[in-house]
Design goal:
Structural class: mainly alpha
Helix content: over 70%
Order of helices and strands: HHH
Strand content: under 5%
Distance between the termini: 93 Å
Largest sheet: none
Number of helices: 3
Length: 90
């Protein structure tokens, strides 16, 4: 009967070491994984917002002539035949 308390004590020590120690499944690792998860969720949200903005821009380019003209003016420097181009130098 003296061996049973010793076995229980060794099991408790083993589980306490696994819980608090540096090994796989410890509380420190759990906290680290929670921080990684929060960071990944933030990255996913940023990517979703970026994708929504890009999707809206693509839809605007597909449907509207105004957006296409604005893009041509800003990116390519194009103007319509009846427009005058002014370049401001600073």
């Amino acid at each position: 009967m003296k061996i049973l308390p010793l076995i229980i004590l060794l099991l408790i020590a083993h589980f306490q070491y696994r819980l608090w120690g540096p090994e796989h499944g410890s509380l420190a690792e759990l906290k680290s994984r929670e921080l990684q998860l929060a960071d990944l969720k933030l990255q996913v949200e940023e990517k979703k917002q970026r994708n929504e903005a890009l999707y809206a821009e693509v839809e605007d380019l597909r449907k509207g002539q105004e957006a296409l003209e604005e893009r041509a003016r800003d990116d390519l420097g194009m103007i319509k035949p009846d427009q005058t181009f002014f370049q401001v130098l600073e």
